[in-house]
Task: structure prediction
Amino acid sequence: MSQGQRRSVVITGVGVVNAAVVGASPALGAWLTRPRAGARTPPGAARPAVRLPEGTLAGLIDAGEGRRLARVCQLTVAAARLAVAEARVDPAAGLGLVVGSELGDFTSTIAFADGYLARGPAGLSALLFPSTVMNTMAATTAIAVASRELSLTINVPTISGELAVARGAAAVASGRVDAVLAGGVDELDPLVAETLDALGDAGVRGEGATFLVLEAEPVARARGATVLGRVTGAAWRSLPARPWGVGRRVASRAIAEALAGAGRATPGWVYGSASGDAPRDAWEAGVLAAALGARPAPAVSLAPLVGHHAGLGALHVAAAAWTARTRRLPDRQGGEPARVDGCGLVHGLGRGGGHVAVIVEEA
Amino acid sequence: MRPVVVTGLGAVSPFGAGVKAFWAGLAAGACAIRALTVIDADGFRCRIAAEVPEIAAGSPRRSRADRLALGAAMEALQDAGLTAAERAEAALVVGAVGGGMLEAESWYWARARGERTRGWAASLRSMLPATHAETLGYRLALGGPRHTVVTACSSGAVALAEAAELIADGVVDCAVAGGVDAVTRLCFMGFNTLKLLDPEPCRPFDRDRRGMSIGEGAAFVVLESAEHARARGARAYAELAGHGMTTDAYHVTAPEPEGEGMVRAMGAALAAGGLTPAAVGYVNAHGTATPQNDRIEARAIGRVFGGGRVLVSSSKSMIGHTMAAAGSLEAVATILALTHETVPPTANLTTPDPEVDFDCVPRVAREASLEHAISNSFGFGGQNVTLLFRRV
Result:
């Protein structure tokens, strides 16, 4: 390893649904060429957030799902379907699912509690209750895309999406499953936003979902799949920090282990998790400097454009595959992309000390 | 793939703190399901649960669930005798669902009443399932890979499977893994609303069963590569010889009627362990006591093992359904059954269901020569997990 890395793992499908870009890898590539931020709402607010415009999901899910599924599940299903469609993978041949989420379905959870507080036991909804469990997005998505192998929901502050991709890649690399749909999803609930504000979370928040189809390369090649990129290393560790806290230690083996798994000494470029949460961003900069030395690679984070959410980490992996193919690192200000070489590091450091590194290369 | 053994056990259960109390309760066939006290059950048809009687570990400022987890994880680490250096490299995988929701609910209930709330920031900070892993990692100085899995009622078992994969794949030599859940209002109200709770203590596999009983607790184990355990002279309780994880992709709350996903999970665990069904002597069933689960699980066990051959029992008859902790508490029960060569019973089972073609060990524990045993855990979302243990 890196984390259990043995079979070559490739990316064969991408699905993105957020305020700035909706679609599969061609739509993502077009956006990355000249990235523009999703609209921040409310305008002029002290803590603007990047929200998905109304109606975005209408063409991505069917009417029954629109009525039946909670909004965060709709986001998940929509992005997952886009990825599966691009990959043209057959779920019947064995498809696992790894969903990263930081918040789950708080909208339904709050509605369930409010029913009781308003009317007592008679106000409780049997339909809402299953959505109070964080695996509700995985449950509905497994049904929607007929994923019948392992199904995991991973909850880690800040880096759930990166970790879901790393965990999915490990499952494929180890030979336990040939294909995994992996990514992350979150939605913005007003009460949750208010609560996070009060807890001191200062990043730009967003919502959305990004999923990738990860496959064993021989399996993907044998069926003639279009290969979008290769995940050559992945590792995760933890740094000491109090729950929800920012730590001081910057030495972690995650980056070195991921690079070693890829057979690389250093990355040519970096997608980092910096989101405007100043203490955490400074900690991440320290960790990257400790791992990569005094001459850091060019780095970018898409968090300010789409807002921080659990889909961001998976979006960074998908974007890294584009960068590896085109050798262009997007300019967050919408300018000309920078020319880069070598392998890419997708890096995530979370409040609480979760640390993940994924190496992405051209296939 | 490297063999993985269990070298440390820890449990905080409705029988009290410690593995010793847990096994004493199981072996006696005692039922710890009583009147609910942690939350207000007024107005609900069911008003009972299996609560942990006393929680010694951790500051009272921590969430109830965090304290349950700390108690169990500290016992497991002490039992295994890992050094500080080994802990610094050990992985941590936690199965969780409710997180610190019990305390967050108190805040939200008070907020709804327009009351001023004190200490709310700490409550909200510990609300998410991931908080247990952060608390354990920080307090116990576990510095390896760390993550939290949320797979509903199978979470605790998935945590063990995840940790076993990290060891088998050579990522780490040691891991701490388990599940935790405290009683919460949301969980209690939700299962009441789904009409899945029996007003009396649950009766798995009984013809007249009427549903489950809620419980709470935590169980953690220390897993190691067999080679690492041998090198440091550690005692191994059992080998985690295989596991299977599958998904029904059928319904969000109901299991697939033929138990096809359950069959695949059990089959995958046996295949990973290189065993035929005949090698397994005991199945620690998911056994929730809902009419539907027990019927479908029995059908699935029959399809894998053949009718009537293995002993089957449900720990939930004694400690209730401890949600995210269930899979890990029942894994510990299964390991202890192997080491004691005694199958814990199914309490409250008086009239066996004729549709359940197994000896479900009614009310009294049974001595049995066991080499291999499995523990089944299933959850909302059609999540199926089977852990296979081998006596060492």
